Amino acid sequence: MSQTSAETIYLKDYTPFGWTVEEVHLTFALHPTKTRVKSRIRFVPNPDVPPQEFFLHGENLTLISAAIDGATIPPKITPKGLTADVPVGPFVWESEVEISPETNTALEGLYMSNGMYCTQCEAEGFRKITYYPDRPDVMSTFTVRVEGSEPVLLSNGNKGDAGTGFAEWHDPWPKPAYLFALVAGDLVNHPDNFKTQSGRDVELNIWVRKGDEDKCAFGMQALKASMTWDEEVYGREYDLDIFNIVAVDDFNMGAMENKGLNIFNSSCVLASPETSTDDNFERIEAIIAHEYFHNWTGNRITCRDWFQLCLKEGLTVYRDSQFTSDLRSAPVKRISDVIDLRGRQFREDGGPLAHPVRPESFVEINNFYTATVYEKGAEVIGMLKRLVGDEDYYKALDLYFTRHDGDAATIEDWLNVFEEVTGRNLKRFKRWYSSAGTPRLTVTDKFKDGRYTLTFKQETPPTPGQPQKKPRVIPIAVGLLGPNGDEVQPTTLLEMTKRQQSFSFEGLASKPVASILRDFSAPVVLEHERSNAERAFLLAHDTDPFNKWEAGQALRRASLIASVTTGAAPDTAFLDAVVRVARDDSLDPAFRALVLQPIGQDDLAATLHAQGHTPDPQAIYDASETMAQSLAQELADSLPRLYADTTVDGPFVPDATGAGKRALNGRILYMLTRMDGGAQARAQFKTADNMTLKLAALNALLGQDTGTDEAENFFQLWKGDRLVMDKWFAAQVALAKPEKAADVAEALTAHPLFTPKNPNRFRAVFGALTMNHAGFHHSSGRGYALLADWLIKLDALNPQTTARMCTAFQTFARYDDTRRSLAKAQLTRILSTNDLSRDTTEMVTRILEG
Ligand code: ARG
Ligand code: ZN
Description:
Layout (H helix, E strand, L loop, with lengths): L8 E2 L8 E11 L5 E11 L8 E4 L4 E7 L2 E2 L3 E3 L2 E4 L6 E9 L9 E5 L2 E5 L19 E8 L4 E4 L2 E6 L2 E10 L6 E4 L1 E9 L5 E9 L7 H18 L7 E7 L6 E2 L4 E5 L12 H16 L8 E2 L5 H19 L2 H20 L11 E2 L8 H18 L1 H15 L3 E2 L1 H12 L8 H4 L5 E9 L2 E9 L14 E8 L5 E10 L3 E6 L7 E4 L8 E3 L4 H10 L3 H22 L5 H12 L5 H8 L4 H10 L6 H19 L3 H7 L10 H21 L2 H9 L3 H13 L4 H11 L3 H13 L6 H9 L9 H13 L1 H4 L5 H16 L1 H7 L11 H15 L6 H12 L1
Parallel strand pairs: 2-12, 18-19, 19-21, 22-24, 25-31
Antiparallel strand pairs: 1-23, 2-3, 3-9, 4-8, 5-6, 5-9, 7-8, 10-11, 12-15, 13-16, 14-15, 17-18, 20-21, 25-26, 26-29, 27-28, 27-30
Helix pairs in contact: 1-2, 2-3, 3-4, 3-5, 4-5, 5-6, 6-7, 9-10, 9-11, 10-11, 10-14, 11-14, 12-16, 13-14, 14-16, 15-16, 16-18, 17-18, 19-20, 20-21, 20-22, 24-25, 24-26, 25-27, 26-27
Bound molecules: arginine and zinc ion (ZN).
The site of zinc ion has 4 residues, from helix 3.
Protein name: Aminopeptidase N
Family: Belongs to the peptidase M1 family.
InterPro entries: Aminopeptidase_N-like_N (IPR045357), Aminopeptidase_N-like_N_sf (IPR042097), PepN_Ig-like_sf (IPR038438), Peptidase_M1 (IPR001930), Peptidase_M1_dom (IPR014782), Peptidase_M1_pepN (IPR012779), Peptidase_M1_pepN_C (IPR024601), Peptidase_M1_pepN_C_sf (IPR037144)
């Protein structure tokens, strides 16, 4: 660890910057290794802040010159920036620096991807472009001149002058530096336009490399749908004359909401039926919406400091999930979100990396772009909306937008508008932002003289730095069903505020069956001992789609846990109930597909661990396989009929109806492949004219340890398409048998198309390896060792992606001594690497110290 890398930043230490920035002028003379950046910045002392030393952030910059009010000065360069003596009053700072985009493999700041210049400044990348107060509470207008020979030169805001070799851009909306963007390259656009509700004409473009033009139409449609939706639902209109989206191949994350110039990982914007699956289409639609929605929740109102990240991310995730629910199916979206929440956020919340939705300290902020900040942050907003009701929610949002437009705001500001609108005191509710860990909610019930009482107890296990937990406010949506399946109590919201609390329902003729935590009304683990008969009853009769699905999950989970711990055969109550759902044509195919979806093996390991067992990944794998085989057998007679019924005819349309049918069709094919030796899957692979069907067939075959010819054929067909090749790399590793997974991954790292420099490709192989639960955690330790080898290599190139991939190890302490010590040895080896990045050092340290 270098001496400059160990500093911890605390929320409690926040102090405002001593100056306001009135305007920023930047000139870029582009060159792959010698880009020159000139800045002219007007600073005005902030009268509300005691005088402080003038400090500008700056990293990896070669200073050419610096001047204050036109007079050259010698600033003092420090490892993280510079300091200078400045006048007491306002002044103009000018500097020129040199940077090297081509050698910037960290993909942060200004870098090159396939010959194209692009930027990623969130969170702290702008300081790698020029000297600047690189903090979100410093907001300014930007005027940018880009000089380069590239045909397309873009930056934020509206167009200014342009001519051969240069283009100027002006962004009239004050913004923090993390929203700055620049793109230059030989790009082509997919153009369109939009008229806002007040009549502003907006030019829209999706910019891509030549050859990708035919993959933009869907993204454009999603953008326009997002613009309309935000006007209709939140009354928010776009505020510039132009909105540009650019697709970039090398990108650490999904996408970035830079003002007027969103930059996307090409995997999150390019779509065509031949190359993208239904899941890809839905994800692309959601991410385009997400980045667009940031224009208000993130850009017009930004964060005071990075501890407030959930202010924009939680809210924007919440908004994009509302959008998807409105455009597609609300129950399907809710179930999918909960699967994702349990798989990623509960996992994080229950281990060494657990942190509050609003963290109180960090070493490297990039390590806090987490499922907790994003997804749990969105859940917290969902709870708030449930508690105050829709009407007050939108009133509070209107107040938030009017009061804080142009501000760098805090969670306190956010909660204040809710308190003002509703008259509620949200002090206790605020614990959701400050306390880490997933509450466990246990419930018992009693029926006597027509009165049904539910008693809840909440308890949150300790998390790093937080040994004791206070009770939280938990909105619990409950409905009651009578013995014949009729709903005798429609959904009602119980507000739990204490450690233990009872709620009663009067006047019931007989003991009801309770449907608890409907629509997953709070991000908690519900522990409810009940019979399989009751669960099957709920799967058949619950009117709440989430809990109907959840009842099937509970049956399946109980059966799998019994198989792993006692060797029991799959439970017949479960098999019967699921077979009934699968065959029930009155149910939405997408819902049936979700009921048939296996429970993740990592999720099962977490459940076993929580119940005091030491999870054995191989045993979990075996039990899951046995369960899948039994299900296929139970359904065997119906599989050909179901396969035929769920086949979608006609041209591919990526809408919810078609996607739902294809999802069920894919599940059926997977089961069929267990029964027919792969005949149907081979046939489908040959005739499929879209990627959803093609990949479903390939996956079904690979899942049965066959399909080598198809994999080769797929490669020959698609070797020229980067995004499709990522699917090819991932599928082979994800579906490999546990004992082969590390070998398959290692062999693929020797493939000519493998490169650690492209995060998508690296994740295709290693993300798939870590998601192959029994493969990654194989008792040989080969999975751990291979990942560690490559993380060490990647860290020298790209710390951000390395640190993120380290999270694969976060659950290591759950497992047996052998695995624990194998994993620990690899973590220790990573940590002892010379010049290990701050990002990876922090992650590995937290995992080891957990
Ligand atoms: N604000 C972006 C998004 O949600 C994420 C960018 C994060 N990038 C990073 N390097 N930390 O949508
Ligand atoms: Zn975001």
